[in-house]
From TrEMBL:
CDD domains: LTA_synthase. Coiled coil: none annotated. It is found in: Cell membrane. It comes from Halomonas citrativorans. It comes from the Bacteria. Gene3D superfamilies: Alkaline Phosphatase, subunit A (3.40.720.10). Residues 521-550 are annotated as: Disordered. This is Sulfatase-like hydrolase/transferase. Its main location: membrane. It is a multi-pass membrane protein. Keywords: Cell membrane, Membrane, Transmembrane, Transmembrane helix. Residues 220-472 form the Sulfatase N-terminal domain. It holds the Pfam family Sulfatase. The chain crosses the membrane at residues 35-52, 64-81, 110-130, 142-159.
Amino acid sequence: MPSSRILKLTPWLPLATIGLSLGYAATVLTRLPWWALFLIAAGWIGTGLKLSWGRPANARYRKVWPWSLVPLSLMGVYVYLADSFGNVDLGAVFFHLQAGIAEHGGASKMVVAVLYTLTMLGILCSITWLSRHDQRWRLAERYFAIILLATNPLLYGLGQRSVAVVADDREWLNRRYMPPMTGEQSHTPNLLIMYLESLERTYSNEVFDDAYADLNTLGEQGLVFEGIRQMENTGWTMAGMIASQCGVPLMPAGLLHDTQFEPLQKVVPGVDCLGDILSAQGYQLSYLGGASTQFAGKGLFYRGHQFNSVKGKEEFLPDMEDPEYLNSWGLHDDTLYDFTADEIRRLNEEDSGPWAVVNLNLAGHAPSGFPSQTCQDRQGTFDGQDILYSVECSAHEARVFIEQLQREGLLDNTLVVVLSDHLTMRVSVWDQLTALDRDNTLIMLGDYIAPQRIRRDATMLDVFPTILEALGFTLNDHRAGLGVSLLSEKSTLVEVHGIETLNERLREETALQHRLWEGLTPRRRETEDTPAAQVTETPADQADEVNITH
């Protein structure tokens, strides 16, 4: 083919690369159907051909490097995160980088990351080619670079966090922190906490048929809480567990850590959490998770907060009948629940005082879940994509496990707490989920729990004091951490201020962050040095929140 003919065809490649990528990004960031990407690509290519992009009259080639290459790369990172997780949480990114991502189960994500990288290289090459061959692009892409920087939510989030340096009030949340001062328990029940990965209560909506039916059945036996919303820095597994066991959002150590380039050695050492309180009361504490305890600091958190036994994938492998029966993250739920039942039997047999067992399953993990073979034998073949199949599996396995323990008498005098660790990330029914008012699962079962439903505007922070009061502890003003017991009539922070205000205050907060990481952070001047009178609050801002009226 003559070289002149090749030159005429050349603009098709950069135009098609940019058009398809633009269409794909639009479907990821909006509710447009997947096939809309082809319409957007066709419109882009048609416009480019009509305007002769890359082949202008009086073309003047110039070897330049476009200004937009870096802004485009940053936008590509944001689209990748949004495509992988749905909502992009910078706190999760920072925390996982510092706490460690060893032994993660996201092998498929690595393949997607490579494909995204190759696509971004194609986009950057296309922009460079057009800018060098078309003086109109050379002029326009500079403004394009500014627009990309101004509209990138990733950079907007970083900017909001930087505001804390000059914020007028950087301890709004810290002033509302209530150390969990507990009196003697009125009774000392055992405690079983079951975190169901990503299994939010939103799945109970009729849109999703019977996927949540087994949890609805469990809820009929006990106390169901509705309206447990998700504030920022509580939307991933470690953050959800810390919010519900410590009453605080997980604000990453970040640059507060003395050795920023080394892994963390402790996780939120500056606050007392559920494990610290129960250990002081003589409880035997065990954590069992399907995934590795090395990932995201899970082992560090539980060991650092007084758990006697902390086990994950590596600890269970030697005792598995079939070491090959694993998913990419770790144990399937049926295996995990067998080990958990054995642990509860051991604790009951030892009779060395009350016990608390926490476990975390994997079946509902985004994007498609990891249904166990037990579920596939019951539900039929799994197509590898349908998250509702995995949600049904997770709910059913949890119900069967609890009923098994009840039949064996292992849950006598035991408070059972079933909850989601956080709202799910991007899954096959993402558009349906995000069109609804979403909330987390929280169900309590036990001898002292009367069946009822309580609807409160709350967050996972409020789960911590609720569990403590359900265990028979008396709390100061029904508060612990930033949470308020949902068994009381005292207003939650969300009920008084709204979720948007809490998120805004969280982005400006530094004092609570220092509290969480006390001992790992450089010494700072105490906030008490600044007279409290310098901070002006409205009545609704006061730390002693006003009670709700009924």
